[in-house]
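During data preparation, a discrete fold description was generated, and the record follows.
___
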Amino acid sequence: MAKTNPIQFLQQVRAEVKKVVWPTRNETLISTIMVLIMVLLASLFFLAADQVIAWFVQLLLSIRA
């Protein structure tokens, strides 16, 4: 692999960064809202699952006692 000097490296980096398609403000906003909604849904799911498991464990422990 040939070594490149720092100037060539920076030129190559700039060329690659120009190829990046950055999201628009609207796309970023929609993606952020979707992530927050999914976090909320996942939190509710795991809260419900935890409550069901806790109830089941309490039921099992009360039967043995």
